[in-house]
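Lecture 7, part 2: worked example. A protein chain together with pyridoxal-5'-phosphate.
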Amino acid sequence: MIDTLQIKTTKTSHSRLGETDFNVLPFGKVFTDHMFVADFEDGEWKNFEILPYGPIAMSPAISALHYGQAIFEGMKAYRLPNGEVSVFRADKNFERFNISAARMAMPTIPEEVFMQGIASLINIDKAWVPSEENYSLYLRPVMFATDAELGVKASSTYKFVVLANPSGPYYNKALKVKIETHYTRANEGGVGYAKTAGNYARSLHPFAEAQKEGFDQLIWTDSATHQYVEESGAANVMFILNNKLVTPAVGETILNGVTRDTIIVLAKEMGIEVEQRKVSIAEILEGAKNGSLTEAFAVGTAATVTQIGSIGYDGELYTLAEVSTRTISPAIAKKLNDIRYGLAPDQFGWNWVV
Ligand code: PLP
Ligand code: COI
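Predicted complex, written out as structure tokens:
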């Protein structure tokens, strides 16, 4: 990539780094000293700036707030053994960002704006990248509509912002998940494959209800029949069924996860048979009962590889094999982490050293 972007940089006068306890880094709460911002106006991206992280003044009429034109991405930067910093598969997040933008009638973003925005932010805040195992710098690019008017139409102006958040794992235990058969996350013809704010907004009430029932997360099912598993709250789902890795095929209703894609590549490489297809609730529950379902796990950038301990369906709880007995997903997760942290050769060229 060519470094063509002219980025105006305003450094913070007071770094918060020294006040930050790197032993306590809950996901999404601590931000680095700076952020990258850019504007879309008059049909082009402009005003590329690194600014101190902080509030942005906006009209309360901006259309993102009223009509929801907002998309985002999530990726992670890792500290390599030689001290360098590498972002994992950012090209896939860039591609998906523009797929989301097109679906939400938003402008796409040029590769150099996305990539150089991220690189410049990491470079100025490099000291914030954790080096502990399981810790990383979570990167959150977001784009939202900024026209201050109330007519329902695609905005003509947008803001693109990249935030960086040093963090540990999103989940710290095996999950008790509920298969949701009333509410839906997505439907054919809808926006399920886009990483857009409304997909998360609509999940919050069902999620809160499930939490009241004692669950940690939901597994969404197809809106037409509620018989097939789709994905989890903020992650894709995978199963080891009859020693094969089985996962719902992605389509219009499922986010095409980068971690999902990565794990499929690694599993095949490790000689594990992979099936991407419709996955019925019936076969999962049957597998839980007869023991052919030996592992279930959620996969995502924030979630990494999180084990699913039990599955609730229709008032019954199905307890899965003890996490300590599982071998396949931990082996894949190790391989994945070794590549990300530079402890194994990056044979697929996934690491982008910034
Ligand atoms: N599905 C949803 C709804 C998500 O929010 C995420 C998280 O990004 C994923 C799946 C996993 O995607 P990825 O592995 O690209 O992070
Ligand atoms: C990610 O894994 O990057 C996500 O977007 C999950 C987030 C919604 C917590």
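Residues 74, 231, 234-236, 255, 257-260, 300-301 surround pyridoxal-5'-phosphate (ligand 1) (CB under 6 Å). The first strand starts at residue 8 and ends at 9. Keep this in mind for problem set question 3.
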